[in-house]
Amino acid sequence: MRTTFDINGVSHDIIDLPAEAGDCLVRMPYIHRILLENVLRTAGDDAFRAKDAMLAWLETGQSDVEIPFLPNRVLMHDTTCGPALVDIAGMRSALAEAGGDPALLNPVVPVDVSTDHSVAVDAFGTSAALARNMEREYERNAERYSFMKWATNSLADFRAHPPGTGIMHTLNLERLATVATSVQRDGRLWAMPDTLIGTDSHTPMINGIGVLAWGVGGLEAESVFFGMPVALRVPDVVGVRLTGALREGVLATDLALVVTHLLRQIDLQDKFVEFYGPGVSNLTAGDRAVVANMTPEFGANSGYFPIDRQSIDYLLATGRRSVHAAFVEAYAKRVGIWFDPNANPRYTSTLDLDLSSVEPSLAGPRRPQDRIAVSETRSAIAGMKKNGGAPSVEGEPNDGSVAIAAITSCTNTSDPRLLIAAGLLARKAKAYGLRPPHWVKTSTAPGSPTAERYLVRAGLLSDLESVGFGIVGYGCTTCIGNSGPLTEPVADAMAKRGILPVAVLSGNRNFPGRVHPQLEAGFLASPPMVVAFALAGTVELDIMNDPIGVSQDGTPVTLSMLWPSAVEIDEALAAASKIEDFAPAYDAAEASKAWKELPAPTTTLFPWDETSTYIRRPPFASFGKGTKLGTYEAHPILVVGDDITTDHISPAGAIPAKGDAGRHLIERGENPFDLNVFSSRRGNWEVMIRGLFTNKTVRNLLGDDIPPGSTIHAGSGDVLSLWDAAQRYQAEGRSVVVVAGERYGMGSSRDWAAKGVALLGVRAVLATSFERIHRWNLIGMGVLPLRLPQGVKPADLGISADDVVVIDADPQTMTPRCDVTVTIRKVDGTSTTLDAVAAIETSAEVGILRAGGVLPLILKQLLNRPGRKASGRET
């Protein structure tokens, strides 16, 4: 099993995969090879059983056998680490109150946290926008950031990267990821693949350079913090065979949108995706990262590209040491995880994609999988207009006007070619004298502080600024909903004429209300296409053929006159790129004076402040009240349809002053004109619970015209907020459930979508299907996810608030994917019995449900456990 490997004069222990798997190794997906290495190195007595299961998988491409996975590290961002840290602080308090040692609650793997989800686009269109937005970020979030610094002071091997260091996935690509690594374990130096989990659904972006990683909720990450492995079945792996090469004018964004559309046609729940074939070698690491970033949008755990020469070139191009790059290549080849473009591994199923068939694409106007040709925007929004369309006013925003145009998100700003392309288009537009109309809110928020350096060196930052696309921050900004207020002309036209404005962004999600709570339509596009639509000011045109503006001499300007060629992009990139940019750019950001001057406690126990509106001790970070399983009667508190995302369940954007959450904060002295965003308040359960399901597009099917975030109380018929109804049900000793349609919980990894539901007293969620991360988050909170029988939709059941749902979920007989009898007793005396299936994948998940959630389970395990130190960082 273990042998030695010498590289650069240093001897390392390794798991010898060729010796362990023999002739089977070349038939294994590369994902399975990395998982096999992990279980053989970490699973102890269970290693050989897991190995046998993984080799047996090759016969059928499927398996029900569970394997443990222990990643090397954990990656988080500020708005997922915030609630996780509040949980840890609460658990430390609970452990101390129970007579345990709170210092035992410490990560056993290295944890990195980026601060990227809080910066908002308050200022834009001026050279001072970046500084102003950073200033406002600290003004709004100083208390949260001090809390993060408490964690840095109090937790072992926990490192927070301050605002300005970029988006977590770009930071991971350019600075943190090693691809292969050396780690000291028990006095021995091991070489191993770089693996991680991240508390963001777009964590698989790092798959683009050959690092196996996937996104989880904060609750699952907390379990890994404290030594629990990720339990999964030997995964199904869908192979996507790539051939050919991208054509002139087609960008990585177009490929990502085509792949997302293609893969959403099949069921990828709890499946991994691996790209193989000769076409892979024709994609750069940047191209691959863009595709891999969209993994949650196409519904899989991963979008994995194996390690090859492009991975090594990327390491060198981003300033990693040549000695390390040589180590990665030698190790990957030695253990059999180096990519062979001619290999045909065994997959569960396969698809083919000829890269030369990919065309310029957009996605929208409501979902990232809804790919359209770039010329079809007018028809795409036709059905969304109110009453046939708002009256038009010349020179002002109308239906289809671009309200927000944002070069944003890790997805399309981590590949320099895409930003360079946008800069070149802006340069040509500047030469023609074009600018966006006055109503368009424009912004550029790169994933990395290195972007400014190469854009300046290429002379393109000034060109972007000339058309309104100056840098407003280094963070998620518009993509996560921190888009700031709409321009006054758009807001007025919406209020007075009811226009349908549109967002165009280079992000990864366009769900209604995500980019901005008032915007229901959005298109995902490449960075240069975002600039083009901003210049046009509307999507009511054929962008490929119609003029998007008029030059200073009156010449109509079309997209073909502005679009840069591949040669132009490559030449500009070569002139702009400098290996020495990367480390200094990050070092300068890490040295933030504002961050260093923030005060923070250094105590083992966090000093709770009862007056805080950001950090509140959560009721669920405790030893709990036992399992929520059992046989019981419940009332439906909420019945919803298909495609309810985590944005719908637990919003991230601006907190409205008129909502329950806003009123709660105002009553406690907060400024009604600056309540910050929901994502910044995730450490305050009392705020988050009041924001549940308040997205204006959520319809509660229990009745007509129920306001978002509300329900009908059984018996009384009163229409109450979900929180008020939940409290009344709890006082009455009655249980509640949620009923939902297809793809329930799609979107972000935010565990608050599950925490909030659990705080409502929900014991089970019955859905047609679940997205993977949210399904686990529900289990992590002790809530049972149940899949309705195929073909059964919530609307078909005709459930009313007074109906009773009887669930027979005996904790002693619960097993993965077992049948659970559900009976719906109608108020008219009739009843319907359904054979639901427990959406539980592993016995470990059963154990969490029996314990009442992962946090009580961790606390019970720690109460009498001897001390354990963190493992130390990789080298």
What does this structure look like?
With 875 residues, the protein is of the alpha/beta class. 34% of the residues lie in helices and 18% in strands. It has a seven-stranded mixed beta barrel with strand order 24-27-28-29-32-31-30. Strands 6-5-4-9-10 form a five-stranded parallel β-sheet, with helices on both faces. Strand 12 (237-243), helix 8 (252-263) and strand 13 form a beta-alpha-beta unit. Helix 2 (30-42) runs antiparallel to helix 3 (47-60) and helix 8 (252-263) packs parallel to helix 9 (285-293). The longest helix is centred in the first third of the chain and has 26 residues, at 129-154. The chain starts with a strand and ends in a 12-residue tail after the last helix.
Structural class estimated from helices and strands = alpha/beta
* Biggest β-sheet strands, sense, barrel: 7 strands, mixed, barrel
**SS summary, helix count:** 32
Q: Based on DSSP secondary structure assignment, what is the total number of beta strands? A: 32
How would the global form be characterised? globular
Ends distance: 23 Å
Q: What level of helicity do the residues show? A: 25-40%
Low-confidence runs = none
The percent range for strand residues is 15-25%
Radius of gyration: 26 Å
Mean pLDDT: 94
Strand and helix map with partners:
Layout: E1 2-7, E2 10-15, H1 17-21, H2 30-42, H3 47-60, E3 66-69, E4 73-77, H4 78-97, E5 111-114, H5 129-154, E6 158-161, H6 168-176, E7 180-185, E8 188-193, E9 195-198, E10 212-215, H7 218-225, E11 230-233, E12 237-243, H8 252-263, E13 272-276, H9 285-293, H10 295-298, E14 303-304, H11 309-317, H12 322-335, E15 349-354, E16 361-363, E17 371-373, H13 377-381, E18 402-407, H14 409-413, H15 416-431, E19 441-444, H16 450-457, H17 461-466, H18 488-497, E20 502-505, E21 521-524, H19 527-536, E22 549-550, E23 556-557, H20 559-562, H21 566-576, H22 582-590, H23 593-596, E24 630-639, H24 646-649, H25 660-667, H26 685-688, E25 710-712, E26 719-721, H27 722-732, E27 735-740, H28 752-759, E28 762-767, H29 772-780, E29 784-787, H30 794-797, E30 804-809, E31 819-825, E32 831-838, H31 843-851, H32 854-863
Helix pairs in contact: 2-3, 4-5, 4-7, 4-32, 8-9, 11-12, 15-19, 15-21, 28-29
